[in-house]
């Protein structure tokens, strides 16, 4: 993995998450821990610039990129900014929740990954149509508090089989593809 060399050769490289949601921060920590080098993970409140409950890929993806860029801008010494944005998606009358991840570096590259879709039940769909946020609806349905910062809709819906954190960790790992295989993403000129 490419690392920027600085005159502080010993300093750990920094990755900044554009959210203080502990689920998102833990997902980035777990993903970067797999890279082999020790990374320092910081978290900042970064505006998504989209609605509190993004609907559809375009809006959700934009929110992820805005958060990643704001995160990177907040830390001049950081190598990467990571944005994770949850959204809801409608296909053929069924509604799903999923997410997009954007990772940005100092050279303007953006790595993308999205998905992790899971079917939402009718009571939640009704609430979404009425303009409510998924987090609020999941709290109401499960009679729990702040579930979006715990197992999330994914954990509640699968009754603990898989959680929001693991799902987001996978998105971060996939969004790193362009730095794992730079030769496949960049022309020789750019890569040089
Ligand atoms: O603190 P931030 O980073 O804003 O985290 P968030 O969970 O509130 O915000 P997102 O922008 O990622 O998600 C947009 C909305 O979708 C909801 N959401 C997305 N994924 C969810 C999940 O797995 N469980 C519960 N709510 C979820 C949540 O209510 C958010 O208001």
Strands, helices and their partners?
Layout: E1 14-17, H1 22-33, E2 40-43, H2 57-74, E3 80-91, E4 94-105, E5 110-119, H3 122-129, H4 134-142, H5 152-157, H6 164-175, H7 177-180, H8 182-185, H9 188-191
Parallel strand pairs: 1-2, 1-3
Antiparallel strand pairs: 3-4, 4-5
The structure holds inosine 5'-triphosphate.
Walk across the major sheet and give the strand order: 2-1-3-4-5
Order of helices and strands: EHEHEEEHHHHHHH
Instruction: Give the N-to-C terminal Cα separation.
Output: 15 Å
| Class from secondary-structure proportions | alpha/beta
Shape: globular
The profile of the biggest β sheet is:
5 strands, mixed
CATH class: Alpha Beta
CATH topology (level 3) name: Maf protein
Helical residues, percent: 40-55%
- Average pLDDT metric: 93
Strand fraction band? Answer: 15-25%
Corresponding CATH architecture: Alpha-Beta Complex
Could you tell me the number of beta strands? 5
Work out the radius of gyration: 17 Å
Total domain count: 1
From the structure above, extract its key features:
single chain, 192 residues, alpha/beta, Maf protein, five-stranded mixed β-sheet, 9 helices, binds inosine 5'-triphosphate, Probable inosine/xanthosine triphosphatase, nucleotide-binding, nucleotide binding
Structural overview:
This protein is of the alpha/beta class and 192 residues long. It has one domain: Maf protein. Helices cover 40% and strands 22% of the residues. It has 9 helices and 5 strands; from the N terminus they run βαβαβββααααααα. It has a 5-stranded mixed β-sheet. α3 packs antiparallel against α4. The mean pLDDT is 93. Bound molecules: inosine 5'-triphosphate. The site of inosine 5'-triphosphate (ITT) has 19 residues, from β3, α4 and α5.
